[in-house]
Here is the input.
Amino acid sequence: MHAWPASEVPALPGKGRDLQIHDTATQGTITLAPGPVARIYVCGITPYDATHIGHAATYNAFDLVQRVWLDTKRQVHYVQNVTDVDDPLLERALRDNLDWTELAERETALFREDMTALRMLPPQQYIGAVEAIPGIVPLVERLRDAGAAYELDGDIYFSVGSDANFGKVSNLDAEAMRLLSAERGGDPERPGKKNPLDPMLWMAARPGEPSWDGASLGPGRPGWHIECVAIALDHLGMGFDIQGGGSDLTFPHHEMGASHAQVLTGEFPMAKAYVHAGMVALHGEKMSKSKGNLVFVSALRRAGVDPAAIRLALLSHHYRADWEWTDEVLEQAVARLERWRAAVSRPDGLPADALVEEVREALANDLDAPAALAAVDRWVDAQNASDGDDESAPGLVSRTVDALLGVAL
Here is the structure.
């Protein structure tokens, strides 16, 4: 599966700072100082509706991570998956009388278009669950053969008790885990499981549903968590720098994935930092497909909204915050974009070297994009109120906003 084209990232004078970021597992801020190549895995979409503002906010956060790392003169190895076979996708295809593969391909293509328009840097590997199945099957067999998985009516389940570090990503108690498991795709009430929290690794073939050759597992399809584990281990290995996604993936998805990987490899942890973006609401409720209260990036683009304004609207909120999308949020972003473009369109201006460092410092401090926007606002206000004579300043500001914030002026 191919990703989307990369926009050019301008080089800035000097060098950026190492990233300090909030780690869900330790519940504190840690400093990440990767080697020459920083490694990041971000969980992708299930392509039955793409791309709403909640998606965009999440991928914007991890785009900032890449830009901070690139500014430190590192390379970035970024991997993202597409869950292109799963119950929600099959249910939507059945509802709309569509072939499930057609639906997945259509929505994935739309996602690529939206990511391109928003100038999100693409992953080096963009892997669908279906194409990962040949690598998933041996991992499930290894877990089963090691006694970390068991069969129940033809399905294969992972035993959470096989991982001594289970629970160290989300830090939740058993009851909270059980409730979230039921809410987020698990089946804690199924009779016969060793532990209600045990997640499915391999679903035996169901009538009328797609299935693949599972070798000794029998025909079926993979569970959700093992999909990401197989892709991440194949392309990044253990101990990569960031496992990212929305905060609703903390449990069960990232918790279960970490346990799968840790049992498979005997290493801990799977990722050095677990980083989660907040949820976006509309009309007081979390924006979600199940509620149908979605604002789509593609619909905003069709309505003539500049993608740079959409991106500024996302950047105006801290990535870990839960916030609400409103017309006012977008109007403020449109006005900010107009002010910024007017300020950098002048032939000269106030010196901007200090601004570059302010933006770098803000983003290195747990991706504090609102503080970075405020720094640019101050330069723009001063630029509009005075007569600077630095001919290089407007260009430097434009390159800084482009390179570090992903906004083209």
In short: The longest strand covers residues 75-82. The chain has two domains: 19-297, 305-405. The mean pLDDT is 96.
